[in-house]
Amino acid sequence: MATELRHKRNVIRPRPVFRTALMAVLLLGCTASWAQSPKQRHPGEKDGSGNVVRGKYIVEGLAVCGQCHTPRNSAGEYDRAKTLEGAPVWLQPAEPNSDWPLQAPRIAGTPPGTDDEMIKLLTTGMWRDGKPLRPPMPQFRMSHEDAQAVLAYLKSLSPKPR
Q1: Which of 4, 71, 83, 129 is the S-S candidate for 87 at Cβ 3.0 to 4.6 Å?
Q2: Is the bond preceding 136 in cis, omega lying within 30 degrees of 0?
Q3: How much is the mean pLDDT over the chain?
Q4: Residues with Cβ within 8 Å of residue 124, at least 6 apart in sequence
Q5: How far apart are CA 69 and CA 9, in angstroms?
Q6: Which CATH superfamily includes the segment(s) 51-92+101-156?
Q7: Which sign does the torsion angle of CA 113, 109, 55, 152 carry?
């Protein structure tokens, strides 16, 4: 009886080498089928409207610029009529910081710098004075193409008269 159990145990339990080979075959099969499947368009990829579509995807979906650059109403919801038109900074530093900004600038329509300055900011994290922006602004390191797309989208927006 003990011999039978030992024999059944060996039959049921695959050897480690077999498990590794099986996993490799499954992984290669999945990878091959993924590589051969038709590529789906990512929401941020260029289409007929080009950089503006990609820029909108980056600004709204990835960088979520509206969290700081769009004002909020009394209920704390975004004021969609003033999207990206600048807002009081609602984030507070964990420790007192006298250099903390009180206002996020308007970036819709005419951003607060030249095209070259904005591209430099988005690709290097540095502003025109050679210094990094103050927190809570993220220090982006976008590709040049992505920075151009963001700028194209921002410039496509029409800010409301103040």
Answers
A1: 71
A2: yes
A3: 78
A4: 141
A5: 65
A6: Cytochrome c-like domain (1.10.760.10)
A7: negative
